[in-house]
Amino acid sequence: MEVLNVKGICKHYGNTRAVENILLTINSGNIYGILGPNGSGKTTLLSIILGVIKADKGSYDWYNSEKNNPTENIGALLETPNFYSYLSLEKNLEIVARIKNIETDTIDAALEKTGLLERKYSKYFTLSLGMKQRFALASVLLGNPEILILDEPTNGLDPQGIADVRAMIVEEAKRGKTIILASHILSEVQKICTHVAILKNGKILKSGEIGSLIKSEKSIIISSDENKKLFGLLVRSGLFEKVESIKNEISVSLKKGSTAKELNEFAFKHNIILTKFEKQEGSLETEFLKMVK
Amino acid sequence: MIRLLRIELIKILSYSTFWILSGITIGFYFIFLLIGIQIEIDFQGVDINVYFRFPVVWQTIAYYSSWFNLLLALLLMILIGNEFNFKTFRQNAIDGLSRRELFFSKLILIGLFALVAFIISFFSALLIGVIYTNDLDSINIFGDSYFVFSYFIQAIGLMSIAFLISLLLKNIAASIVVFIGIYIFELILRAYFALISVSWGQYLPFNIFSDLCSAPSLKKMLTNPTIRESIDNATIAAKTSGEINEISYGAIIILAVSFTLIFFYSSYMIFAKRDL
Q1: Could you give the number of structural domains in chain A?
Q2: Which chain A residues touch B94 with a CB distance below 8 Å?
Q3: Domain range holding A261?
Q4: Which of A140, A150, B47, B171 qualifies as a cystine partner to A75, CB 3.0-4.6 A?
């Protein structure tokens, strides 16, 4: 089932392009990572789909416009958490509950889940940065929404907090929730997400299933005593997708369907003994850095 | 609507500034009122207590209460400024309030403030009138009570200006300064218009709202009916000759309501169009 369909969204601030012609389809149960360097338009995109910012062009549909108030099914954390500093955590969550038309007796469960039940009656301004972030997650989880939108959810958290948030996202994903996660912690996204869109300067450079994105990047690092000769032979052969010389090593990307064995045989056939032969598992980080470079 | 009211009540009832400002406003309101009703003028042919008897008391209290509307506007600007300061308009929208609901939630708050102010004024006038009027049976108690209803319109009107300014400036201090600044600017403009014999000044919004609750005429405290009658005749003659160019009370109400609607519509458009 299609949860979100983004159709050609554009947003400019004066001459600065925030996002340009964003096309995205997110289906139910997807854990969709939105990646991009700072200022790439991740938050702008999320702000638009949450109705906080108006797009200059394009549109978006939640549930194909079949639900009257789709935002009631969304729990979202955008950038820094924003709450009434003079109100207690309980009162702040009561406001969220009333907005979402959900029972206020779910407040304790949300606070407990984020380890803040003991601070229920504390004023929001008395919380530390990490606690504020956890409280924001409590408000996101309030009422068990079908969709979670998390913009840098681990901001300001200590290592334990980061691990807890990651576990929470995995747990929510297991429950079949649709999650949209903007983050620049790529290892985190790789571990959690099923799909990913990479943004740069407001444009989507690549999007799709995370597996296909990483697979396309599989390579082998080799070296020998005759690196220069080997490099020349590999380039001229045309048998490989990409051959790059990196310091004293050579990175070889295999063509679709070809195997590492063929590379080994190629070197043997040309009487070159390989001193290093290391398969490189694809990582989102390498792919990402390559794209945004 | 009840849902939006509940949300607004959660926001204001735990806000200490709200209680402090409300306490100051209500406290000063009754202190000055008690001082006012105890003023005695021992002058032959003058009876100041007429202002506290029915039906004049309605206009007296409406006029007196209108001075406290500035504090209502101030309170509103603080509350709306807070929403920008804490970025909670944005958060409320993220949590699921539509822009229309955000607008209406503040409209409900304005209505609530005006209603509370109206109730306080209404019962103050009723109580004072009952205490000071000697012969309740022979008088139409609610004769001029429409003045207190006009006060309600005035309260909403002034808060509609405060609302618009707060949305435009997004800052508490700047909103208060600009609100007072516009009021002073309008006073200067009116004085200038009067100087060059142009009557437009009376159509300016603050003046229109102010005219809704004008002070009761001084002639009312004169005990001699012949003098009152001659003043009335002189006023009628001046109006007929064009020396006094006053807007009728009905037109003032229409203009006040129109200004209020324009300010609210402008505020709504800001909510609808602007990024939160």
Answers
A1: 2
A2: 50, 52, 71, 76, 78
A3: 217-292
A4: A140
